[in-house]
Design brief:
mainly alpha, 3-stranded antiparallel β-sheet, two-stranded antiparallel ribbon, 3 domains
Length: 191
């Protein structure tokens, strides 16, 4: 028996459901149903949000899902399969590579090997390094902007006493420091 032969037979409705999902027809019916439909049933479309029995629901990719407080955390976790190659993401470093690059360690190794074969590796390293410098520069500018906009009228000490401090930041000096820092960030970029 060949290795590529499916050992499980799919029913017609399973095949129709997969075809509809691939074609983007998430809400299409694949079979006829018979029964009583209560007067309170509503038809919902992709992306609709509604409340039913004290829970909030939505439809994503043709599937009815409950909206919870943990939906944001669901996006932080890694998937079971690599979105690029479809392989199982169970290696120790797959989680780190997925967070950094959006695919598994094997896909990153293949990409880096391909770039080295094509002679584009040094260019890739320079671009990656320069993007990292740009991100540091944005974070620094955001921090300095928050620092400049911060009020220093009152401070609360460890004892709970409110202290009033006199004096503000020298904005010209801070601006000069920001400009020097930007020049430094630009100077360490790889050319």
């Amino acid at each position: 028996m060949k290795d590529n032969v499916l050992k499980k037979q799919f029913k017609k409705k399973d095949v129709e459901r997969l075809r509809n999902l691939v074609k983007g027809k998430n809400g299409e019916r694949i079979s006829q149903g018979i029964g009583y439909v209560g007067s309170t049933s509503e038809e919902h479309k992709e992306g609709d949000v509604w409340e039913e029995n004290g829970k909030t629901w939505t439809i994503r990719d043709g599937i009815k899902e409950n909206i919870t407080k943990l939906d944001k955390i669901k996006n932080l976790s890694i998937p079971l399969f690599c979105p690029k190659c479809g392989g199982v993401m169970n290696k120790q470093l797959d989680a780190n590579y997925y967070k950094a690059f959006g695919h598994c360690l094997d896909c990153q190794v293949k990409l880096e090997t391909y770039l080295k074969k094509k002679g584009q590796w040094e260019n890739h390293v320079k671009e990656t390094f320069n993007k990292e410098i740009d991100n540091h520069k944005k974070e620094y500018l955001s921090f300095m902007e928050d620092l400049l906009n911060e009020s220093n009228n009152n401070y609360i000490s460890e004892n709970g006493e409110i202290q009033k401090w006199v004096g503000n930041l020298d904005k010209e000096r801070v601006q000069k420091s920001i400009e020097e820092s930007i020049k430094y960030f630009d100077s360490i970029k790889k050319k």
